[in-house]
Amino acid sequence: MPVNATLPYDDQNIFARILRGELPCSKVYEDDWALAFHDINPQAPVHILVIPKAPFVSWDDFSARGSDAQIAGFIRAVGTVAREQGLVEPGYRLLANTGPDSLQEVPHFHVHICAGKVLGRMIVSPD
Ligand code: 5GP
Prior knowledge:
With 127 residues, the protein is an alpha+beta fold. The protein has one domain: HIT-like (HIT family, subunit A), CATH 3.30.428.10. It is 24% helix and 20% strand. The chain has helices spanning 14-19, 59-65, 68-84; strands at 27-30, 34-38, 46-52, 92-95, 111-115. It has a 5-stranded antiparallel β-sheet, with helices on one face. A hairpin with a 3-residue loop joins strand 1 (27-30) and strand 2 (34-38). The protein binds guanosine-5'-monophosphate (5GP). The site of guanosine-5'-monophosphate has 13 residues, from strand 2. Guanosine-5'-monophosphate (5GP) binds next to strand 2.
């Protein structure tokens, strides 16, 4: 069910539960600001999700309400993950689905890092 990005934060969402350690994840990286783990249903040879440790529904919510420290810490974490995973030279794609038209499914802000092959066209329309 696509997420309405304007809804209040649901602290029972799956990534909130991963953050609290209630559900497992295949962890790639963690610091004060972010947790990164492998996507359970990878769409590329490398498919990592990076999530902030604070409760934000979407990119829209994070960019509007996140403190400068939270935003800087999160952005640096995304870059660190990509560098540590050796993705910079072959290249990678960042993606943050936001709201119904994007088909965002999990209502905790996350960035997808996809890599490991030539990724093809940026947007594939369902039409
Ligand atoms: P969205 O469509 O919200 O941008 O992306 C949600 C992503 O979370 C999907 O790529 C999906 O495969 C992934 N995902 C959903 N549930 C889980 C889970 O329990 N563990 C992990 N690691 N990934 C999940």
